[in-house]
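Input record (one chain):
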Amino acid sequence: MKKLCISVVLLIGIAISSCSKEQSLQQYFIANAENPNFMSFDLPSSLLNLDKVDLSASEKEVAASLKKMNVLVFQKKIENIADYEIQKSAINSILKSSEYNELMKMNTSMGKATIQIKGDGDTIDEVIVYGDNDDKGLILVRVLGDDMNPASFVQIVKKMEKSDFNVKGIKLFDNLIKG
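The corresponding structure, as predicted from the sequence alone:
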């Protein structure tokens, strides 16, 4: 009986210690959905207007695999500067984990942004777009899909410039951050 109790305690200890102490991006979204400093919403992939862009067969396959976008927007104000710094640090910490691979960095007139991917070498299940501007706030977007081809996804991003998402979408997000 004593050996059984010791075995159970060891198994519980191993199970607890093997659990990751790092917060996942999904957990971060859930935890901050109710944070009053964030606006949180889900958008359908149809918002990208990819049906209006000439896509190859493989790009159409990637477009069809897109499910939705989860969005968190933090509008920075004088009264929430400390929380802004905490949230910015937490997001950067999550994105530096080995789960995500940086696809590109951008410096725009609206602020700094990165695009990261999650998946194995052949397929992507999640694309993360994170941007921050120390005057306006930050935005975090999870583009969810199933087994997207990385090369085709990059081509879709380039072709999005030809869809009206680029103009309407950027204005929408810029207006959300401005308030």
